[in-house]
């Protein structure tokens, strides 16, 4: 009887230890991904006629989603937004930072990232190019739909003006970012298959 209890206690302790390690790993990946988002925000190129800068955040978001999966990717985007709200300099330097950045013309793009990352990560679980493509396109639609909608509110413009200023100039770059993210995830999947 005592031997069985001792074995059960050891199994329970091993399970708890394993869960703690898993949680620590998840936390590390989520924090690391939020740092990647912050770094990618600082690779920003202002567009002369527009208040929305060209950044590498969509590429970073797709890579994070493809490699970390839906829940960890969404959690890292929420952490990134919280970091920015707290005043840390994680948003694009082209904007005012903090709450003002989220309330400004680019706020919709930022606030859409947890949803877009979750969707891209969800599709990426299937581990094939078609699923990655669908996931990336769905994530971009979420980013641009929410971003353009918020842009109209923040700038008092029409949806057509928002599309002209905050969507169309970025589409060629987004196609390239999608291709890079899909290629990286596909190569990783092939190497680890």
Shape: elongated
CATH-assigned fold name:
Arp2/3 complex 21 kDa subunit ARPC3
Provide the structure class. mainly alpha
The major sheet is characterized as: 2 strands, antiparallel
Description:
By secondary structure, this protein is an all-alpha fold. It has one domain (2-191): Arp2/3 complex 21 kDa subunit ARPC3. The protein is 77% helix and 2% strand.
Give a short summary of the structure.
It contains 8 helices and 2 strands. It has helices spanning 2-41, 57-68, 70-85, 98-103, 107-124, 129-155, 159-166, 171-191; strands at 44-45, 54-55. The longest helix has 40 residues, at 2-41.
Helices and strands, with pairings:
Elements: H1 2-41, E1 44-45, E2 54-55, H2 57-68, H3 70-85, H4 98-103, H5 107-124, H6 129-155, H7 159-166, H8 171-191
Features:
two-stranded antiparallel ribbon; 77% helix; 8 helices; 193 residues; mainly alpha
